[in-house]
Amino acid sequence: MFDHVSIGVSDIKRAGTFYDAVLKPLDVTRLSDGESALGYGEKNAGLWLLASNKPVKPDRESGLHFCFQAKSRAAVDAFHAAALKAGATDNGKPGVRADYSPKYYAAFVVDPDGYRIEAYCGK
Question: Could you tell me the maximum CA-CA distance found in the chain, to the nearest angstrom?
Answer without folding.
Answer: 43
